[in-house]
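Case study.
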Amino acid sequence: QVQLQESGPGLVNPSGTLSLTCAVSGESMSSDSWWSWVRQPPGKGLEWIGEIYHSGTTNYNPSLESRVSVSVDVAENQFSLKLSSVTAADTAVYYCARVRVEPAPSFDSWGQGTLVIVSS
Amino acid sequence: DIHLTQSPFSLSASVGDRISITCRATDNIINYLNWYQQKPGKAPKLLIFAASTLQSGVPLRFSGSGSGTDFTLTISSLQPEDFATYYCQQSYSTSITFGGGTKVEI
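After joint prediction, the assembly is written out as follows.
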């Protein structure tokens, strides 16, 4: 059973860079899965941020692409998110999740989520 | 981007009711449509993938249908633990998108 756990600062200054890491256990990140970040502003819906394959191939939300970077460390079995030039609009619960490829692409495992507040 | 519109935005129902939630895509996504349930303070949970396939462990009262641009999630007999927010999500495009959510309330 794969498990994911987010970690990182819960408070980020405006104009700074948000950095989070997701530790994966129970499955090697070299498997045929994508590893993704999703966020949810307080009281609002889900927004996909981006994803990475163990090869390093990435896909990003076009609305965030200029500010986002997702990287992977297969040896450590973890992947990371960096979001630059943050504003209050980036305040959200950030989830990491596995995108299972077969039998159909879907988010089948999620971390518990971590709240990141952008404020000075 | 492929935009997903869910309706209704919210609905009130009672235990035992049959309810349906619809999700409409702006482009043909074939059957690359998934449904999730989210309870307050918790991560979303996958209910249905590929439009109509029940995820392992999900009760049989949940079902999904549709293809192309129009999809439906149905709960045949609402249980107390089903009061939650439901989201659709498309994986047809490499730019993944979610619907806005439907809150099911008592």
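Observations recorded in class. Chain A touches chain B through 22 residues (CB under 8 Å). The longest strand of chain A covers residues 92-100. We will return to this complex in the next lecture.
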